[in-house]
């Protein structure tokens, strides 16, 4: 992972509609083709919480192929998976994550470090996840989820 991303907080993201946990390894991100779009990305497939919906298609902004992801608990579209990254995006400064959650469909919460009194950083996540399960499975506050 590039040094630029190692000091970013690890986030747990929940579906804004039903509050189910979608990922415990998310990062705040920007869409490379449109930096005004807020996303949360993850490096691992959220296999138990989301599923692909519809056919793969090419984006409007670049030549990447993507497929929408839906929350398996409530059925709402929560993001997409990059199924085939384009050469331009691979050359750009990116975090290597291929699963994206739309900023307006999820509620992010900083993940606590299991042994320190601070938030978990991406530079530490692999060592922490290899030692024990996720440090949090907290449900987001109702006010935040309803916003």
What does this 3D model show about the protein?
The chain has 147 residues and is mostly beta strands. It is built from four helices and eight strands. The protein has an eight-stranded antiparallel sheet with strand order 4-5-6-7-3-2-1-8, with no helix packed on it. It is globular.
Total number of helices:
4
Largest sheet: 8 strands, antiparallel
Unreliable stretches (pLDDT < 50, length at least 5) are 134-147
Shape: globular
- How much of the polypeptide forms β-strand, as a percent range? 35-45%
Average pLDDT? 85
Spell the H/E element sequence: HEEEEEEHEEHH
The helix-and-strand class reads: mainly beta
State the end-to-end CA separation.
33 Å
Question: How is the largest sheet built, in terms of strand order?
Answer: 4-5-6-7-3-2-1-8
Proportion of residues in helical segments: 10-25%
Tally of strands = 8
Radius of gyration: 15 Å
């Amino acid at each position: 992972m590039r040094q630029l991303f190692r000091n970013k907080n690890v986030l747990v993201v929940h579906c804004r509609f039903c509050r189910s946990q979608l990922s415990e390894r998310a990062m705040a991100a920007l869409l490379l083709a449109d930096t005004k779009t807020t996303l949360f990305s993850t490096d691992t497939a959220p296999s138990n919480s989301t599923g692909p919906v519809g056919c793969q298609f090419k984006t409007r902004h670049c030549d990447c192929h993507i497929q929408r992801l839906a929350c398996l608990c409530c059925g709402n579209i929560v993001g997409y998976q990059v199924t085939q990254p384009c050469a331009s995006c691979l050359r750009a400064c990116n975090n290597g994550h291929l699963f994206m959650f739309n900023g307006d469909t999820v509620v992010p919460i900083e993940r606590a470090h299991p042994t320190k009194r601070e938030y978990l950083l991406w530079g530490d996540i692999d060592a922490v996840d290899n030692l024990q399960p996720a440090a949090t499975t907290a449900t987001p506050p109702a006010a935040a989820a309803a916003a």
